[in-house]
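pasting input
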Amino acid sequence: MHILSLRLHDFRSYRQVLLSPPQGVTVFVGENGAGKTNLLEAVHLCCLGRSHRTSADKEMIREGQETAAVQVKVQREDGVDDVGVRLYAPTAHKRKLLYINGKTASRTGELMGHVTCVMFSPEDLDIVRGAPQGRRRFLDMLLSQCGKGYFYALQQYNSALKQRNALLHDIAHGASSATLPAWDEQLCAAAAPVVKARQYAAQALSGYAGGHYAHIGGRAEETFSLRYQGHLSESVKPAEDLHALLQQSRAEDIRRMTTTVGPHRDDLLLTLSGRDMRAFASQGQMRTAVLSMRLAELDMLKDRSGEAPLLLLDDVLSELDGGRRTRLLERIAGVQTLLTCTDLSDLSGAQPAAILRVQNGEITEARP
Ligand SMILES: Nc1ncnc2c1ncn2[C@@H]1O[C@H](COP(=O)(O)OP(=O)(O)OP(=O)(O)O)[C@@H](O)[C@H]1O
Ligand SMILES: [Mg+2]
């Protein structure tokens, strides 16, 4: 797919923007704080109904304004898709509005799969070196964009988990445990589709990401792979297996007032040549690993819908060596990409389809 138009209204630092980036790579160049990431964030908001960097929607409304709006229109192989999001300041007492092809949608899940994107941002390094939660979020965002089924399954699991945890808390304080088996059932039923999707995703990701790492890294001795880790990562019958685990951990769960087993504890093990990356990998190796995971995400979304999603690369070039930069840019040929940088020399001589300068809230054509 490619963007026909991107509109922003009172979004972050922008009063009004209308862009029609060409197919291929568009580079946004500008100083720190110029508003480059804001543009990518607007696209991400239309794809997933949320920002990639904040959960507080009000931060995205231009200072002093009551409402902000973004709209992306894309050309797909089977027609045009047009999605938009309108945000309101808390003082307006209105809920966020989602538009899909001219109609309002009531649930965020409805957005999934219309305009899809893969975003790489500097904070992504935490996917490798940070807590398991970041790696679960990576999987969840990817699988949600593959189809709204996963998004709703995960919502169901999280809601059953919350209810079960609340009940465990009550039981620990003397309430009856009579309804616990019913919540166990709900949790197990909700866990099954989540676990199966993650098993499939981890395997597919590992294959694709390994290939990208080999190409971009350019070192034959380094092999990158990724493995699903969790109580049910190898399970063929996740609902039944979780049920058994919940029986075993019941006393412990009541004592700790929380559910100690299940996919909410899942993780991905990332290894370089068989060693856990968290412990020893360099900054550049971690960055290459995350980038490979993002490109693998792109492959999976492409497998799912038959066409490549939009690629958003925020500040990706600055910490890669020249060879890696060039090989990355080779790798993304044919995918519409919005790429930000602070210095055009970071492009290592590559010829993007367009270069736009971001300055003082304005976006203007810039040719080197
Ligand atoms: N709600 C808002 N209203 C007005 N301005 C905002 C709002 N949110 C952020 N900004 C402004 O947007 C700018 C940051 O934009 P952005 O993060 O896109 O910069 P950037 O070009 O990506 O910078 P860097 O190169 O450092 O990553 C800051 O100047 C900030 O003050
Ligand atoms: Mg930025």
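fyi The CA atoms of residues 173 and 228 lie 36 Å apart.
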